[in-house]
Amino acid sequence: MIRKSNTTAIVQLAKDKSEKTRIRVEKAISEMALKEEKINFNTVAQKANVSKSWLYKQKEIRIRVETLRGMQINELIPRSEDVLIKTLKSRIKALEEENELLKEQVQKLYGKLF
After folding, report:
1. What contacts 95, CB < 8 A, 6 or more positions away?
2. Which are the contacts of 25, defined by CB distance < 8 A and separation ≥ 6?
3. Minimal CA–CA distance to 70: which of 35, 37, 40, 43?
4. Annotated domain spans of the chain
5. Model confidence pLDDT, tens digit, residues 12-41
6. Phi-psi category of 49—alpha, beta or left, where left has phi over 0 and alpha has psi -120 to 50?
7. How far apart are CA 64 and CA 98, in angstroms?
8. Mean pLDDT throughout 44-55?
9. Which residue has the higher pLDDT, 102 or 86?
10. Residue pair 22/58 in contact by the 8 Å Cβ criterion
11. How far is 34 from 24, CA to CA, in rounded Å?
12. Cα 50 from Cα 21, distance rounded (Å)
């Protein structure tokens, strides 16, 4: 008689661990942004105690880190009016992309609740 292995518990634990890690990373990024700390993959990985490769694999988080990092770099560069306009347009686009990702996450979370 062949026994089927019951992996549902293991799969659920892995999903829970991944979700907890994601929440920890999101919290670290938010805290760093509020404190105006330098945001890049190294600093986020260190603060959230995750690997950089994990951050790169998570599309939404990768985009958020890249966006915030780009905004910090742009703040350091002296600007003329044309450069300022381009920078602001770029920043608006990045924020719109981040907003869309956050909306998708909210929809997923609502789906989990119901």
Report:
1. 67
2. 44, 48, 50, 55, 58, 61
3. 40
4. 9-113
5. 888 889 889 999 998 999 888 888 889 999
6. left
7. 6
8. 94
9. 102
10. yes
11. 15
12. 8
Q: Which of 44-48, 53-57, 67-71 has the lowest mean pLDDT?
A: 67-71
Amino acid of residue 91:
R
The amino acid sitting at 97 is: E
User: Can you give the pTM of this predicted structure?
Assistant: 0.59
Is 55 within 8 Å of 41 (Cβ atoms)?
yes
Residue 23 near residue 50, CB atoms below 8 Å: no
Place of tokens 């805290």: 31
CA separation for the pair 33, 100 (Å, rounded): 19
**Residue labelled with tokens 């770099």:** 73
